[in-house]
Amino acid sequence: MKKHIVLLFIFLITIFTFMGCSIENLTFKDIKDKELFSYIDTNGNIKIKSRKDKIDETLISGDNVYEYDFNLNDYLAAYITKGNEKRNIVIYDPKAKSKNIIGTLNSPRSIKWSPDGKYIAVDSGTGSVGAIQIYDMKNKGWINISKSTYNYAWSPEGNALAFGVWENTNPPTPIEDGRTISTAVIFLNQKNTIKTIMKGSSNFYIYPVRWIDNNTIALSRFNYAGESKESYFKANTSDGSIKEAKKSEAIIDESLKLPEEVTNVLYDISPDGKYVLYTCYDDKAKAQKVMLWDVANRKKTEVCQGEDPKWIKN
After folding, report:
1. Higher pLDDT, 28 or 134
2. How many alpha carbons fall within 13 Å on the CB side of residue 100?
3. Is 109 left (phi over 0), alpha (psi -120 to 50) or beta?
4. pTM of the prediction?
5. What pLDDT was estimated at residue 254?
6. Phi and psi for 285 in degrees, rounded to 5?
7. Is 22 a residue whose pLDDT tops 50?
8. Closest C-alpha among 160, 248, 169, 239 to residue 206
């Protein structure tokens, strides 16, 4: 834990140095107290901002960023550039100020480092059917999952990725050409073996919500018919056991009581659980804006124009 905090500190010092900010008085307490987060501004630059003071500085510029993620283990950023269909996947080193294009993919829309920093997962697509590819940092190559996918989640140790798989079923379902969704996991330290965890059927689809621990996945099952349409399960990837779960076990942020406008957008919860960042569209300005939700006071505040806000967490 101490090592990770030190790495976070070094990463932020690198950021502040690159931005030309004074770091003479920057301490561990400052990093926590300033409540720093990143976001994409209206020009496609990645910026660092504080909830508490006037820090609002550019980290990455000139590439018109679509989506991004940070690797605090190795002080790196990965991002997708904007484009019509073909978009670049870039790794940025703020210390060396270098950009490395590791691939150009069709319609990539989501990017996420594994927790150990060894892999980058990229999801591509324009609808509910996706395609996941994983970049191996050590071997400098892509691992393709030759299946149509839906949603994904890294295991806490970063050695496995859970995802939904579109599959044919008989009789057909009422969605996506009659297909259903099963849940599978790729184990990256076991010759990239893909294992089916729970199969969907003609009556329901099931997909991963999150990892509870490194061996347990929370799953959401949606029934196509009936009064009780949604239910939850816990699946053990080691012994294959599956147990029913409460919604509170599967959905960790159920108690936040977020505003209605957050229902269908991505959001990020602060490390202390007191605030939530999210994006919504400003009809008057005709632009995206970053919003802050105060959980205790149930109050929302407009922060700035921009999108894709993420707390910088240790």
Report:
1. 134
2. 12
3. alpha
4. 0.88
5. 67
6. -80, -10
7. no
8. 169
